[in-house]
Design goal:
By secondary structure, the protein is α+β, with helices and mostly antiparallel strands. The protein contains 4 helices and 7 strands, in the order H-H-E-H-E-E-E-E-E-E-H.
Amino acid sequence: MKDWSKSWKGSKQPRKQRKYSYNAPLHIIRKMFSVALNKELRKLHGTRNVIIRKGDKVKVLRGQFKGKSGKVDKVSFVRRKIVIFGIDLIKKDGNKVPYNIHPSNLVITELNLEDKKRKEKLGKK
């Protein structure tokens, strides 16, 4: 891949920052999906953020659905968006369409700890 380099240190130029994130492979994009934890979870687990997963409960911080909460229904690394159950757009014909939200606009309020590896990783800190 000529478009993307893991050793890239950063730039002040937004075009280069965008190029880095748009051309990143999926295993790096996954790391970009870390979402901040609320204050209680920060104290409990000793970390500021966690990679979001289906089943986590989140609160929206930005946009037209600010303040609403719900469970994560779908995480799309390719589209770089998250779908939350219960947060839908209503079209003019009356149909409901799931609303895609960027992970930077969310805060995790409750973690899905069904996965043993995730539980271990959070328990170590």
